[in-house]
Amino acid sequence: MITLIGLGPMGQSMVRVLLENGHGVTVWNRTASRADGVVAAGAVRVETPADAVAASELVLLSLTDYAAMYDILGKAEDVLAGRVIVNLSSDTPEKTREAAEWVEARGAKFIAGGVMVPAELVGKDEAYVFYSGPADVFEKHRETLALIGRADFLGEDVRLAQLFYQAQLDIFLNSLSVFMHASALVSSAGVSLQKFVPYAKDNFKMMDFYLEAAAEQIEKGDHPGDDANVTMMGATADHIVQASRDAGIDVVLPEAVKSHYDRAIAAGHGRSSWTSLFEVIKADRK
Ligand code: NDP
């Protein structure tokens, strides 16, 4: 028996995948009616968080954030000892660390997870999930967890799953916003976005070409600017801001990008590669 608490789109998909693979699943959700579909598919609904936690050694949480975990497990503290809590909700690495301490102080083990696909892809080939926490606990449940998606264990530092998850979402959300911005720029001239999309796709594909070499330069702290230097690209960043102003569209995103180039130039990286932006971005770290 596996317990799953939190029946948003993600939790519901996970329950279905577990049921399809022959597991019994106990479920609890704050809004009880949201369990109707998975109960019809074979899951067992219980009345309270404590009943849900008590039903299984392995307890999966799929909640909006980590605050929801305390709301729920705070009502099941007496039955937590000996359980393995796998929290697949999104939040910050620091909140993850605090949550692990809270759970472990109550005699349970804690694994953090970050699911990297939308609900319709849970359990499919494309699905993968970052995990971190005690390796022996993860290994014990790896086979079951791998039903949700490929299980990528990142290490015993429990923050790592959410660190990688948020870094991936950083890329994803910024990419979506920048595509919206570029689309607003193109459509300001009355051009159909369908005409622009193939070029945007090529641009995203080109990222594949840059990343490994960029990471190598960043890790060496060596930023040769022979082909494209910060001064040239900073001028382009400024052209994007000006073009956006001329088009009457939002300039927050291009101004943020331009500020990276301005600060890199001010720090003496004008003749270096664009990878030297990393030096000014990381300089803002605490
Ligand atoms: P939803 O926000 O739709 O649902 C999450 C669940 O959390 C619901 O069951 C909700 O209960 C419950 N919940 C929230 N707050 C509380 C609380 N204070 N007390 C009790 N229960 C609470 O999320 P999703 O299913 O879309 O996502 C789940 C997690 O997975 C999120 O952290 C999300 O970031 C992540 N994720 C989502 C993806 C997606 O495409 N949807 C993709 C990858 C990851 P109730 O039904 O009563 O509101």
Automatic annotation (TrEMBL):
Ranges for the NADPH-dependent reductive aminase-like C-terminal domain?
157-282
Question: What are the 6-phosphogluconate dehydrogenase NADP-binding domain coordinates in residue numbering?
Answer: 2-150
The domain of life for this entry's organism is: Bacteria
Q: Does the keyword Transmembrane helix apply?
A: no
InterPro entries documented for this protein? 6-PGluconate_DH-like_C_sf, 6PGD_dom2, 6PGDH_NADP-bd, HIBADH-related, HIBADH-related_NP60_sf, NAD(P)-bd_dom_sf, RedAm-like_C
Q: Which Pfam families match?
A: NAD_binding_2, RedAm-like_C
Q: What are the record keywords, sorted?
A: Oxidoreductase
The family line of this record is:
Belongs to the HIBADH-related family.
Please give the name of this protein.
6-phosphogluconate dehydrogenase
- Recorded source organism is Amycolatopsis oliviviridis
